[in-house]
Amino acid sequence: MAALCKDLVLLISQFLDEEGFKETARMLERESGYYFSMKFFEEMIRGGNWDEAERYLSCFTKLDDNRYSTKIYFEIRKQKFLEVLDNNERAKALDILMKELKAFAPDNEELLKEMTLLLTLNNIRDHESLSMYSDAESARKVMMVELKKVIEANPLLRDKLEFPNIANHRLRRLINQSLNWQHMHCAYPQQNPDIRTLFVDHICVPIPSDANLFSAASDSNPLPSQSTSMLVSTSSASNSTSSSEAHSSISSEALSLGVANMGSASIEVFEDNTTVNDIFIPKNRIEISTAMQEISDASLPHQSSVNISDDLPKNVLRILNEGSSPTSMEFHPEKQTVLLVGTTVGDVGLWEVSSGESLLSRNFKVWDIAACSMMFKATLLKDPSVSVNRVAWSPEGCLFGVAYSKHLVQIYSYNEAKNARQQLEIDAHVGGVNDLTFSAPEKQLLVITCGDDKIVKAWDAINGVKMYTFEGHDAPVYSLCPYSKGNVHFVFATSVNGNIKVWLYDNLGARVDYDAPGLGCTSMAYSGDRRLFSCGTSKSGESFLVEWDDSEGAIKRSYLGLQKNPSSVVQFDIMKNQVLAAGDEHVIKIWNMNKTELFTTIDAEGGLPANPCVRFNKEGTLLAVSANDNKIKILAKDGSLQLLHTTENCLDDDLRVFSDTLTKVVSEAMSKVVCAQVSDEDVAKVVVSFGRTCHDWKLLYKFGVLKQCFNLLQNGNLENSGEVKSKITGKDTMSKSGKLIELHRPSQCQILRLPSHMKANKVGFCFYLSQTQISRLIYNNAGNSILALTSNATHLYWKWQQNDFDLSDMATAKVPPQLWQPRSYSGLMTNDLTDSSPEETVPCFALSKNDSYLMSSSGGRISLYNLLKFKTMLSIMQPPPAATCIAFHPQDNNILAIGRDDSTILIYNVRSAKVITILEGHSKRVSGLAFSNDLNLLVSCGADAQIFVWNVEGWYKQRSRFLQIPDGRIPFSLSTDTHIQFHQNQTEFLTWVPGDFATQISHATFSCDGQMVFASFLDGLVSIFDASDFQLYCQINPTAYLFPTSSLGVYPTAIAAHPQEPNQFAVGLTDGGVIVFEPPISAGKWSMLTANENGSASKIAAELEANY
């Protein structure tokens, strides 16, 4: 308990420092004696605060404790004496000599006599030992260097100089964990608990709130919010070498009158730099941690540089002349080549960038002056000039909004190329409207605005009614960033002084309040993979581009390369979850999101302002940048603009051909509930025919196709036709060139076999795990760990951690991970095997979205594990029936779908420990489950070769169909398990059937970007297919990744794709091994492999073609 008490004191001290209670933190250090702040002590010495310095020192050591302590006290009082004497304050100097220095007289009588003689000198520099004395500031600096050596050698102080390495805001996190734990045990837990005090235990009351918005519990997860970042070992390492050196140099040194020897010049430079940095960087603790991250990132291998460079739009393909200087731009969310622009004179324009055509241009005009406030009329009369501060599209692109520099917001409806109609005009704010965005909480489309009046407002986008008012900022609000986690919707609002507040749509006040770096105008944005970034410029012109840990409200990473410019604010944008771009120094600066150093710059052939506005289209294929002389430059990859233009023209042609037939069929089909002339299948065939051409089912909504039609498509009941894509087992998987890339040797790609400490038999250079194989394999969502479930019901957990070779802590084939276990637990997580037969067992597991909890079963009871402690939190559902597959609900971690061997699907609420419903329809065991985030559906498949689509809102069956195999083939029996996985677009899914087919598939998965399919086979082959047409373009033979002495029976049983790196995947083997694959560094991508890659190309043999 004493150690925990010390830890708590240090956590409180950290909290006080983070909150700005510096004096209180120092008082706690003095009273506890646990930590000696060298920085604070140096500030006192360098500032000449002698009494405060001694008061602080006395709490840790007394004058006569040892010779080191005596030395420290003497140097402080000696310098105090000399400075007073140098100021000719002889009476005061005499008082110091008699009252303070006299304590050292017994062992230093001669020294005190010399100091007494100094009182008789007109200038202390006349004394030989003080001839080099310059001034007080320099003397203090030199003395502090000497004092540091003595302090580090002092046994009473040297173990208290290093503050433990504690994660930022650790005390807050512990409190959040406690609150989440209390919330989990509430009798009637609310979805958004209102926590207003820590003085008593939390009990839910029926008031919707979310005090823990930024914890993992915001995803409707009642379990304690934890992450791997919590597991930071504390250390109090001191520099033993320097301490010993100081000891040897000081032990023989007597007290002296002369000025201490400063030592090497490098020490002085270090002192100067440390002081400058400490003064310059605000919020040291956060900035120091990010600085360490920057140092780490700087030495990372540039494995993704080739990929990013290839994807960047950097060639100027079009220059648009807007007529006045652009202030805000945004591409249409669906029409990738339509650009919306606002300018300094209030003009609004729409451009088709593929052709350079101006679709429309609107000058500023008040639509209804009578409805405007008198204040706005007076302001406009006094100064009629108006500029556009922000333009923005609604999520579906059917509306766009314009925020002006005076009071007004105007909303247009947009249906087709040149048709934009006036929708709403709102006198929104007093002064300028600084930002505008759209959000749809509770499926109601809102326009969110902020302005110079320090207020954020939310308006109904259809009728203009004000729905919410958020007040509390103490400065004009500069920017907005709406977002949602699960079913909790909120909006970030940042004021011009850098204060960030987070608001829920409930008029109950801000939930979070913290500051952006630089305390200036800052914009925030989420990437598609849920990472939060901000970019801002302080009043002094310093710019900051950072990534946030949004669960902590702390800075995770600071990007380097922005320069000081007080004239304007830096603007930034995000491309495809890969790249950050910002306009600075007359160029576009580019960063890899995972690295802090500047990746490259794009000059766009020159002519850019100091801080140009930059904006990517949704797919990242085009980049618009504002230029001098009222111009906008459109950047693209080679040929991408022409390709987009051709594609959109094709879509338009398809629509014209399709429109008449579809309108007729749909109107006839929907005119009556039962239509003898047009069946559901007929409508579906038309939809499929169109879908095969446009490859974008969402377009059906846009052009008036009824939702019922789309349901026919998404829920099945379709004929196979050409829309069911070629399966891996089909004969058309051969590359069009008739060749594929075959890899036979380990040197032809990057391969890493993960370490294992399980008992093994050594044969040659290979280790075989005894009677176990990898049954299931998965990456965690953060991409830095791999989790495996073996056939003997144990779990293996590998974690990549920062080290000298890999400072990113992301999974990689370059550096081996650790087979990780918590320090407090020496065993493995092992599932229940009660009454289960290994031959009949179907292992399954699922990982929560916050990577902290695992649901797993190996034929026995289902167990919930805490991955940070390897602790079993609960165990449920004794078989029979046994669980065969598990899936977490994408919006609620508490809801599970559990497929069982009795053909049912159990929908279970972990928080309430209640069964929500049981879904019935399959005739054999359920073998696969997959949720679609976008369509609100659950898709299941089973050993009966059927696919069912279930509506998640009401948990009812919508459609079902039998799995269809190319060429009319069917599984060898209706007891073969089928498996399913959704594509990244959440509207398509992949199914595969392992077993007795010619191809012998053992497992398959999409790459994280949905561009590839990785598949493993029972003969040991690992193949990589193009997901768009299932062309096989790379095949990895067992000789490339298995040891020469491996058994012939070793083959992959499970395959998993990295969640963020599309070219990395891992396979689990029948011998218990796990292997990570990446393409060779020379290629960078699997798709970039060539026929000359290490001489690995070969013709597809006739017999191989027959098998595929």
From TrEMBL:
Keywords: Repeat, WD repeat. It comes from the Eukaryota. Coiled coil: none annotated. GO terms for biological process: regulation of DNA-templated transcription. It holds the Pfam family TPR1-like_2nd. SMART domains: CTLH, LisH, WD40. The keyword Repeat applies. Gene3D superfamilies: YVTN repeat-like/Quinoprotein amine dehydrogenase. InterPro entries: CTLH_C, LisH, Quinoprotein_ADH-like_sf, Topless_fam, Topless_Znf, TPR1-like_2nd, WD40/YVTN_repeat-like_dom_sf, WD40_repeat_CS. Residues 225-245 are annotated as: Disordered. Residues 34-92 form the CTLH domain. WD repeats lie at residues 426-469, 919-953. This is CTLH domain-containing protein. It comes from Salix brachista.
